[in-house]
Amino acid sequence: MKSKFYESLNRQALALLEGEDDLVAAMANFSTLLNDNLTELNWVGFYVMRGEQLVLGPFQGKVACTRIPLGKGVCGTAAFTNQTQRVADVHQFDGHIACDSASNSEIVVPVCAQGNVVAVLDIDSPIFDRFDEDDQKGLELLVKSFENCLFD
């Protein structure tokens, strides 16, 4: 059933992003779309690559960490490895950076242009093990659509 939900959400994202070429505007609306449609979240947004670090981009949620070194924490690891990081319990993740003490699980999907990580989509939840394989596949589909709309 989640696959149908994410397919529908992907159609909404494509309609939202159609014709938009401003990265900040696209990230702002995309993070809002996810925040409005996914449940049990306390933060959703982007970190953008700037040299050897990630810098806070558009998001929905409480005040967040402004800069994350490449390879550090869940976001930095996703950016460094160019692989989605799905963490059931962030308190068990070696080097986790606690921006919000209420976050207990997290998923981070790299955003790429021409094969290079340019940002990460970060989603936090106060619920342990909030994100499953279906969520990962759905969010990776959404990020692929984001990439195709903005960078192709």
TrEMBL record:
InterPro entries: FRMsr_CS, GAF, GAF-like_dom_sf, Phosphatase_reg/MetRdx
Record field: transmembrane: none
GO terms for MF: L-methionine-(R)-S-oxide reductase activity
Record-linked Pfam families: GAF_2 (PF13185)
Stretches of the chain forming a coiled coil according to its record: none
UniProt cross-references to Gene3D superfamilies, sorted A to Z: 3.30.450.40
Domain GAF as annotated: residue spans: 41-143
Source species, domain of life: Bacteria
SUPFAM superfamilies: GAF domain-like
One GO cellular component term: cytosol
Family: Belongs to the free Met sulfoxide reductase family.
PANTHER family: FREE METHIONINE-R-SULFOXIDE REDUCTASE (PTHR21021:SF15), GAF/PUTATIVE CYTOSKELETAL PROTEIN (PTHR21021)
Identification of the protein by name: Putative GAF sensor protein
Species: Shewanella baltica (strain OS155 / ATCC BAA-1091)
